[in-house]
């Protein structure tokens, strides 16, 4: 569990006023000096992420944030960074200084969490300095409250139990492809190895799909695209499913018989991390693009650009061809969209392997609320190759 990717961990955000003890609580929960602790208000600036294990929740990420009562021009920038954590968190802890009690800032934080449908646990910290009344706290804010002392460790186990009880049960789907096949079936995974592939490793979606096959008793054959024809010939029966890297769709779709279900790692991930129906609708909107329309290409992480990069070169080239002329492109990398989202006719999103499910669902909702079609790389590539309906067929979309 220590090597579980961040995107596959339950995200638990700590919110509260400055000096409520959020960083100290992180250290107490992890039993390590992870977060910088100081009596000076505003010590925490950008959100700090710490991966750990909380059984039986399993792998989690704790997110330490700046106080929402921060002041000044820089303070407001820190507050904005804190607010940006809300859409990606699966569970929140409202940390209150027990010596001062619940304030208007704490009520504001609780209201923001409710707006985002975010489960919330109240933490009355510094209980070694004051003995807080849990019933009185519930009367002010109707939350499950726990009193703790980050300094002595009192109440930490009770807090962990409250986190377990309040954590969403469906924060991550149970399977990537296990519901598409049955135990004993054969799945062929087509994995091109090119200059962009990490040396000695497979990329995360490929690894997770392979593990999902093993978890569901499915026999997986892994080959490169130019080995696929021989792989299919070696099988005594046609596979129950072929999964390919999207960039090999052209060749793979010609080699795989029409009666064999075909999809891609990226499309499996689109369903696993978000809403495949929304992305499919975005792909079908590509035909409406006209020369001069604005397109946003959004990547959730930064990476070393390769020659003929998928997001910087290939996708713009394909879309220009489909639109019959030059489109205007904007690229964004990282955790947010540009403010002028409604100015775009299409959003093309990466596969979201570095985002957790809640973050990706939030991004999809932002696009829907601005009425901007959104598609991801894999679904778009299927549309470009004219096989969109075929690769969506296994999902009934």
Automatic annotation (TrEMBL):
GO cellular component: cytoplasm
Any GO BP: tRNA wobble uridine modification
GO MF annotation: an example: GTP binding
Domain Hydrogen maturase F tetramerization: 278-394
CDD domains: Era_like
PANTHER family xrefs: TRANSLATION INITIATION FACTOR IF-2, TRNA MODIFICATION GTPASE GTPBP3
Protein name in UniProt: Iron-only hydrogenase maturation protein HydF
Protein source organism: Carboxydocella sporoproducens DSM 16521
